[in-house]
Write a structure and sequence with these properties.
Largest sheet: 7 strands, mixed
CATH architecture of the largest domain: 3-Layer(aba) Sandwich
Bound molecules: pyridoxal-5'-phosphate
CATH superfamily of the largest domain: Type I PLP-dependent aspartate aminotransferase-like (Major domain)
CATH topology of the largest domain: Aspartate Aminotransferase, domain 2
Order of helices and strands: HHHEHHEHEHEHEHEHEEHHHEHEEEH
Number of strands: 12
CATH class of the largest domain: Alpha Beta
Distance between the termini: 54 Å
Radius of gyration: 20 Å
Length: 363
C-alpha cells in the first residue's frame, strides 16, 4: 500500500494554502537583490515590531534552553487586565490560525457544517474540510458579510459560524450593532467565531464583550501578527467564556507558544504608542493608495484594514509583472477574484513604488 492509500480521505482532498511569497524566495527565483524587494502580500506591519518587543525577545532567547510556560500565565494575566476579563477567559495559540484549528478539534467532525462568508479568510474552510465537515460558504453582498444570509444558512448540523471583520481579503467591516443582533439571533447549538485579526486598525472597533457577559456562544480571535508586527513569532489568542477557553486549552499542545513569542507579545502590549502610530500611519497609507488608484482609474474596495483589493484586469498577470519588479502582492484568484490583487498598505515610500509599478503593469 502507498502512504496515500493509508492517509485519511480528508487529507487527500485538502486544498493547498498558498501563502504570500517570502522575499528570499522571490529573490532566488528572479535573481533579484532581496534588499530591493518589498513584500505587500501578507498584511504584515511595514513598520516592523515594536522596539520594546524586539528587546524582550532578545532577552528571552537567553533562557532558550528552558521550555516555555505552556499556560502563558503572564500573557493571559496581562490580557485579562487589558480586556477587563478573567485570565481564564483566554487561550493563546501559535498564531490565531492555531485557535481556528483548536476550534475544529473541539467542535467539528464528519457530517457537521461550518458556515462562513465567501470570500473570507481561507483557513476557516481548510480546517473545516480537514475535520471532514462541510463548509457552507455564503457570498458577500457589496463586499460585506451578509449576516442575515449567514444566519439563514444555519441548520441543526451547524457547529461554528465564522465572521471575519474587518474581512480578509475585502477589508470591509460589520458594525457592532449588526454583530450583536446577529449573535443574539443564533440558535444555542452554534458557536459564533468573530475573527478580529485586523480590529486594531479600526477606530471604535466593535466590542463583543457584552455578548460574552450574556453567556452567548461566542469566541473572538486576535493576533499579534498584524498591528503588533510579530507575524514571524506566531502568536495570537482567543477570548470568550472560561468554559470555552478551558475546552480549547485542553486540546492544544503542551508548549504550543514559544517563550520568545510570549515575551515579545507581553512587551508589545506595553507599547500602546507603537500600535497607535501604526494605525495612524495605516490610515494615511489607505488614503494614499485610494488616491493613487483613482488617478490610475483602478477600481478598489474601500478598506478599513491594512490591505486593499484593487481591480487590475488579469490579477495573475499583474501579480507576476509586479513581482518581476520586486513588489510582491497577493493574487486573489483562489478567492474567486481573478481580476483583482490584494495589496498590503506599506510605508509612504513603499506605497509610492507600488502605485508606480501598478501604473506600469496596467497601462
Ligand atoms: C482574518 C485572519 N485571521 C487570522 C489570521 C491568522 O493570523 P496568525 O495566525 O498569524 O495569528 C490571518 C492572517 O493573515 C487573517 O487574515
Amino acid at each position: 500500500m502507498t502512504f496515500q492509500e493509508l492517509a485519511k480521505p480528508s487529507v487527500l482532498t485538502q486544498p493547498v494554502y498558498e501563502p504570500g511569497k517570502p522575499i528570499e524566495y522571490v529573490a532566488r527565483e528572479l535573481g533579484l537583490d532581496p534588499a530591493t524587494i518589498i513584500k505587500l502580500a501578507s498584511n504584515e506591519n511595514p513598520w516592523g515590531p515594536s522596539p520594546l518587543a524586539v528587546a524582550a525577545a532578545k532577552r528571552a532567547i537567553e533562557a532558550g534552553e528552558l521550555y516555555p510556560d505552556g499556560g502563558c500565565f503572564d500573557l493571559r494575566k496581562k490580557l485579562a487586565v487589558k480586556w477587563g476579563l478573567g485570565a481564564d477567559q483566554f487561550v493563546v495559540g501559535n498564531g490565531s490560525n492555531e485557535i481556528i484549528e483548536l476550534l475544529g478539534h473541539v467542535f467539528v467532525g464528519a457530517g457537521d457544517e461550518v458556515v462562513m462568508g465567501a470570500p473570507a479568510f481561507v483557513v476557516y474552510k481548510l480546517v473545516t474540510l480537514l475535520f471532514g465537515a462541510k463548509a457552507i460558504e455564503v457570498p458577500l453582498v457589496n463586499w460585506k458579510h451578509d449576516l442575515t444570509k449567514i444566519a439563514a444558512a444555519v441548520t441543526p448540523r451547524t457547529k461554528l459560524v465564522y465572521v471575519c471583520t474587518p474581512n480578509n481579503p475585502t477589508g470591509t467591516a460589520n458594525t457592532e450593532a449588526e454583530l450583536i443582533a446577529f449573535v443574539r439571533g443564533l440558535p444555542d447549538h452554534v458557536v459564533a467565531v468573530i475573527d478580529e485579526a485586523y480590529a486594531e486598525f479600526v477606530e471604535g472597533a466593535p466590542d463583543m464583550r457584552p455578548l460574552i457577559a450574556e453567556r452567548r456562544k461566542i469566541v473572538c480571535l486576535r493576533t499579534f501578527s498584524k498591528i503588533f508586527g510579530l507575524a514571524s513569532l506566531r502568536i495570537g489568542y482567543g477570548y470568550g467564556s472560561a468554559e470555552l477557553c478551558a475546552l480549547l486549552n485542553r486540546v492544544r499542545q503542551p508548549f504550543n507558544v514559544n517563550a520568545i513569542a510570549q515575551a515579545a507579545a507581553l512587551a508589545a502590549l506595553d507599547d500602546a504608542a507603537f500600535a497607535e502610530n501604526t494605525a495612524r500611519e495605516n490610515r494615511v497609507g489607505l488614503a494614499q493608495i485610494e488616491q493613487g488608484c483613482r488617478e490610475l482609474r483602478l477600481e478598489f474596495v474601500p478598506s478599513v484594514a491594512n490591505f486593499m483589493l484593487v481591480k487590475v484586469g488579469d490579477g495573475m498577470r499583474v501579480f507576476d509583472a509586479l513581482q518581476r519588479k520586486g513588489v510582491i502582492v497577493r493574487p486573489v484568484k483562489s478567492y474567486g477574484l481573478p481580476e483583482w490583487v490584494r495589496v498590503t498598505i506599506g510605508t509612504h515610500e513603499q506605497n509610492v513604488r507600488l502605485l508606480a509599478e501598478l501604473k506600469a503593469a496596467t497601462r
